[in-house]
Amino acid sequence: REVSGSLLVQTGLLRCRVPEIHREFRLLLAIVESEGNEHFKSIACQAVIDYWWFFGHMPWHTRTHRVWQLSYVMSYGAVLWIVRYGMEEDGLDFLSITYWRIFAALLSLLFVFCAFDIWEEVCQCIGYHGAGFLWHYLSDWWNWVEFVTVGFSTLTLFMLMQAWESGHVSPLVRRILAAMIFWRWIHMTNHYVTGTTLGPVVLPILKASGEIRGFFFVVGICLMAFISGYLAIVQESALWLVFFSAYRTAIFGEGSLVALEDEAAVESTGVHNKFFDEVRALPFENAFMSAFAFCLGVILMNIFIAVLSINYEREYKLAWTSFMQTRANATADTVAGTRGRAILSRMFCKTRPPKPEVDSDQGPSYLWVACEATVLDATDCYGD
């Protein structure tokens, strides 16, 4: 209420009810699509997210999906075990017919996993399209990560099937399998951030690490300067050997580019000139490598730790709002997939039409949101 140019809020319990608004799926999508995370601090927004979280059976769905993804990764691990221990050392044939059959069964299981992933993405796309939020689905960068993951899984399965038919696992297939297993383990973190146990703890770490791209750019420039200088000094070693060795030296300080035992012995021309002989025999390559490794490994890494600590402190204060935002995204994807499956079932299956809702004396349902008026900003409250 506006009195003499100022806004006054009556202390007490404020309650608001809008009939059936919480049942509108587009309201949840509008919350997810909103930029920033300030609105996730409001109790009303969190109430809508909690309603859809339990309405979509998300506790059961998340547990099932975690077990499913863990089984997916373990299936790849079993394939790796067969490739490593179930084949001859030269990789030309299976050791026994049992390994060959187990490998075929694992490929069939991976085919089911891959087909399920494709089905889920198609249902989500149809569900978002039916709600009028297809552009939100296509513009979400994490969905593109899912697209790449599904495509890479399909490629890996195709390569493994060719290896099963030929009985030979080439080095290329081994590298693709290694990259697939590595990415699948990393990808599993996305399925654990929606839980109340790990979500508020893991999300600040992930978000703090994601905001240091500028620092990595500076480190990359310094590293390329180091590699360019060392390529000009060392002419005998191969390009990729120098590149990766320089990276290990700069980051981990191994100092393995030029071994000290391979250095030429100092040839002394006299007893009194030994000091000057050692000065003239200074290993310039090792000096250059050591100086730059100190600058990059000590100075820049300490700056990296400081920047990461500041980002983590800021993200830790927003841990709960980030957790609610992540939970809202996961809920929207799940509900969209459910709606997409319902749309497909109505298109291809003959089902009974839904029964019309019968009006009752109780009236429509409401989602009640209550909070103390003292926690609200005066600029957010309006009255007659």
From TrEMBL:
<feature type="domain" description="Ion transport">
    <location>
        <begin position="108"/>
        <end position="317"/>
    </location>
</feature>
<protein>
    <recommendedName>
        <fullName>Ion transport domain-containing protein</fullName>
    </recommendedName>
</protein>
<feature type="transmembrane region" description="Helical">
    <location>
        <begin position="99"/>
        <end position="119"/>
    </location>
</feature>
<dbReference type="GO" id="GO:0016020">
    <property type="term" value="C:membrane"/>
</dbReference>
<feature type="transmembrane region" description="Helical">
    <location>
        <begin position="67"/>
        <end position="87"/>
    </location>
</feature>
<keyword id="KW-0812">Transmembrane</keyword>
<dbReference type="InterPro" id="IPR005821">
    <property type="entry name" value="Ion_trans_dom"/>
</dbReference>
<keyword id="KW-0472">Membrane</keyword>
<feature type="transmembrane region" description="Helical">
    <location>
        <begin position="287"/>
        <end position="308"/>
    </location>
</feature>
<keyword id="KW-1133">Transmembrane helix</keyword>
<dbReference type="Pfam" id="PF00520">
    <property type="entry name" value="Ion_trans"/>
</dbReference>
<feature type="transmembrane region" description="Helical">
    <location>
        <begin position="141"/>
        <end position="160"/>
    </location>
</feature>
<dbReference type="GO" id="GO:0005216">
    <property type="term" value="F:monoatomic ion channel activity"/>
</dbReference>
<feature type="transmembrane region" description="Helical">
    <location>
        <begin position="212"/>
        <end position="233"/>
    </location>
</feature>
